[in-house]
Please model this.
Amino acid sequence: MAQVLPDERELRRVIGDGDTVADGEIEGLGEQELVDLYRSMVVLRTYDERSVIYHRQGRIGTYAIFWNHEAMQAGSVYALERDDWVFPSYRESAIGLLRGMPVETVLSWWRGHPSGWWNPLDYNVASICVPIGTHVPHAVGLAWGKKLRGERTVAVAYFGDGATSEGAFHEGANFAGVMKAPAILFCNNNQWAISTPISAQTAAETLADKAVGYGMPGVRVDGGDVLAVYEATREAVERARAGDGPTFIEALSYRAAPHATADDPSAYIDMERVEEERQNECLGRYARYLRRIGVLTDELEERIRGEALQAMKDGIAAAEAEPPADPELVFRHAYVNPPPSLSEDLAELKRVLGNE
Amino acid sequence: MSEKTLVEAINECFHVELARDDSVMVMGEDVGRAGGVFRATAGLRDRFGPDRCVDTPLAEAGILGSAIGLCMAGWRPVCEMQYDAFSYPCLDQLITHVGRYHWRTGGAMEFPLTIRMPYGGGVRAPELHDDSPETYYVHTPGVKVAIPSTPADAKGLLAAAIREPDPVVILEPKLHYRTMRGEVPDGEHVTPLGEARVAREGSDVTLVAYGSMVPLSEQAADELAGEASIEVLDLRSLKPLDEDALLASAAKTGRVVIVQEAPRVAGFGAEIAAILAEKAILDLRGPVLRVTGYDVPYPYWQIEDAYMPSVERVTDAVRKLLAF
Model:
């Protein structure tokens, strides 16, 4: 029987505060790996901050901000192997960058251009899931299906605190438990679902408690501590590969930015609290840790940030250089074998547009 | 060829298709140990093992949602929804993902899953065991829909669905699972999607039907023998739709009555009527009429016969049209 809560209610932490809380030990990560992890976070942070600017400039559409979520995304992906699958929600829209996806692909997605379509098989990153929590069963099904085929693939579904109220989350979690799927249900609990606080989302003491009902372990980790996230995910991956089934990870964080570019949180959130969280945001915490252990220098930081910024500038230029999408794409790929009526519609549209 | 009931033909299809392609798997509530509440999947668990005939938790969205992931892992899942109206929780996954995922990947990934369910009334069952939900499915882009009316087509259309690279929903007329017998080709048998069948040739009026309304329409045609020559067109596949067969029959008879068990408003019959208005107006000698279920919840079974299209209602519509 799976081990269950409440023995994991305490938040796991590795990174200290440089003052009264000492740094913990992290196994298996050398200096190079620690820098790689830092680079991953900088790539994500730069993507996010530039995207907000691009939105303000009218260069991308509405954008879901993930500022202060980088530790959860980078730490967990770093614990995976390349063959493992990632199922992002829109909050993890740029997570494919950690798998070699071009910046312009993600930007094109937010620009509503068909070049933002990607082939999930190229990166083992599923398409961005917009309806909340509905991709949890997809990740579970993939993990289960790979297990049936004798492969050792693990799948991770990312979702927020609000998703734990959705039926699809519960059905997916239940399937994962019953099928002993090698899946990780990764909940980034940033404590807000647009304007709905976690207290209005659940009466459970912690979200990780929900794992009990599905016969899987639930662990809680400080979502602002990239090393703790990495370690918790690595353990979950090991369990999954050992055939011990799924794990629910609740990474606790705080949404220190608007839900999306169209949102004004000052109407519902205590902005002083937000400011506090911003002072303790995850990238800064990790950078200070790396400086304490002598891994990060000004020069290295500047170089990594410079490279990430350049990649964004190149990416937006490439996205904007995409030719306008052909209206014919409206019809393409709706079906593998389209019904005949679609070709009639296309011919009619072309005639009306004068492109016959 | 051998004579089989409709549900036996479905069961045989599964045995053939699972043996033919080891990526085909069946999943659903009670499909394994019990062999399905109608025994459509009988013997599969014993023959192909519990990994290819999977008893799932009672969660229709979970079944269909995990089937999407199974497709991504290289499987061709066939999901059973135990009854028509029990399929509604799966609509979330169907609409938001099943019909879109191939498109969302720019055509890179295929989702060759099949959803099948017993549908329709007339079986004296409790509430929500009687619905005709085809409109919800056929209205969903990216999803195909077929409805057999004979044992041979029940086998052939299911085989076509399983082999199809697009997601397909098959609705099976449960009223005729065991009451209808017919000759069914042995071994592999595929009825291509998008090909209607002229169930009966005639020259005065076309009855357009699918599923359990086909045998009803044939009874009505019998009733009208000596009065009018009735053609019965069995659509078999709602999407893709065999428009050529529809228009050819309309051109031949000039009179069309659509018989549909589902409620009337925005039902599939409305689509047929619209196509005829757009493409066959000059062939028609009278209005396109519909005989359908009513826009009410499917009634308690003691009065369900008053809801169902009947031979009397169909013949009445035909006579009205002939007198137009």
Summary: The mean pLDDT of chain B is 98.
